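Illustration: DUF538 domain-containing protein.
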Amino acid sequence: MERPMSLLPILTASFLFIFCVAPPLITADTDGDLPTAYSLLQSYNFPVGILPKGVVSYDLDESTGKFHAYFNKSCSFALQGSYQLDYKSTISGYISENKITKLTGVKVKVLFLWLNIVEVIRNGDELEFSVGITSANFAIEEFYESPQCGCGFDCNGLKSKTDKLGRKHFVSSV
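Result:
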């Protein structure tokens, strides 16, 4: 009579792979045990306002910086006298100290064109947003609070103090 094969070696190997070999992955939970997407941004030296309110979860591979942030649905809003922004329900990219690269899922309307924001770099008290062929710099204080989907900073007919600051238009990065 044949002896049944033990699952112990398979389970042990799986455990070792998951906890010793696989890169660490942080995912947001609803119990509040892990940092929010907004506090995670701050840990990489970014202000919370580069993400609109409404992120429901995120994941981050700490070994590579690869992240995904999730909204319940896409999110669009206008910034008074400035730009129209559109966030897909999932945005992703790579984050490191003062730098977000290979960003996908965020668009800005410049004149009549929708352009993908592909990179965000913090340089001192400024943030540089790149759409590939051009970029624009903004003062960091413009991003101390998060805009709301649908209405940006003018949700109650009252402009936020953040939105009263001067804005620089997208200019050539050359």
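Reading the tokens back as a structure: Residues 5-31, 160-174 have pLDDT under 50 and may be disordered.
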